[in-house]
Amino acid sequence: MGINNQSTTVLDATNNWWGCNEGPDDDGCDTVAGSVNLDPWLTFTVTSDTAELDIGEEATITASLTTNSDGGDTSGDGTVPNGITVGFDVDPAGAGTLDPTSTSTAAGAATATFTAAAAGEATISATVDNATASTTVTVTGEEPPAVEKIELVASNTSPTAGEEVTLTATVTESAGDPVADVTVEFAVDGVHDTSGEGTTNEDGEATFSYTGSFAGTDTVTATVAGTDLSDSVEITWTVVSPPPVQFPPSQASEPKAGCIFFTQTQHNLCAGFRSYWEHFGGLATFGYPVTEEFVENGLTVQYFERARFEWHPGAWPERYDVLLGLLGRDMTAGRDEEPPFQRANPGAADHCTYFEATGHNLCFGFRSYWEAFGGLAIYGYPISEEFVEQNPDTGELYTVQYFERARFEWHPGEFPPRFDVLLGRIGAWALHQRYGTPYP
Questions:
Q1: For residue 244, what pLDDT is reported?
Q2: Mean pLDDT over residues 72-89, rounded?
Q3: What's the helix, strand, coil split of the chain in %, to 5?
Q4: What is the CATH number of the domain that holds 220?
Q5: How far apart, in whole angstroms, are the C-alpha atoms of residue 29 and residue 105?
């Protein structure tokens, strides 16, 4: 864009930017016609805040439109151009990096950071409109050797929770020699979540240590910062189990007169608990007894593999005054926010029964089992929908559903007369949780 002054009055256009350093009407510059006072005009300059750098050091490069053709400073007279795009470049390209490579002027100037990468003369140029200016920076120092490989080793790949593990990353160049002063980033992914970084020493080694708190497996990855070079190692943590608690009711007992004695678990089943067990489900529903009778929270109780019998005198004479503990609720405490435990919409009426009391469906084989082998009195209401879960006894995945007093598990082909439904060993689990007895 130029100026065409058709007036007889002389137009003052001093300290104006004409798109190039040579002034108006020069090649690539704006044009002027008529009576215009042009001299002096703005010129474009590039400077560095330092003339020498070591490899890895930085310099601030300033591209400025605040000096006129007479060498005067115009930064304070309100004529500086703003919002003009400036592009930065370095020659040779491997001499270093510029950030940013393009920006706009503010208060008549734009800046970029030059980071030196190779020894020699670096010519840093900037271009605005049709003007290009440059400055030279001398880079000294030895270039670091090119990193070729990183290898990660753990002091212990099978530690016990509570111990400290040290990871050592060794960085080498193409000839296999160690590389010092390289930043290595460490990341732990698995049962623990932590990270850190270190700088290689003269042996090319950087270390990182952490202490485990849980059983399980971590994958630790070491990466050379700013590259894709990495190596990983797996660490499997274990927890030393305390010796089993000597809980007297769970210890092996001698046979008692008038009772059934189960050699499988070395426990007796007597009186009203025996009558209830024999009449309302037996071994398939309750499993073997895993304790003798004892008093818990003021109630006479007995634990079985799949249930806890409680004697409530006078509460239900038709069932020997025996009620079953709400072990399903105990086992799922704190899981209300998980999708299977949130209230559901009613399922298909011909396949499911919906229980408004808990907001859950009971469908297909689980419904058939519930209706045929105990119903509400034995199992209680459903407190979840069906979902797939890992069995804590075997580690296998099964379709399960939780009830107030039970966990149904679908074992295809294992028990057709009972719709292939088995009951989870939640009685043994509850005994372990409360008294520290062995489980599973």
A1: 57
A2: 83
A3: 15, 40, 45
A4: 2.60.40.1930
A5: 19
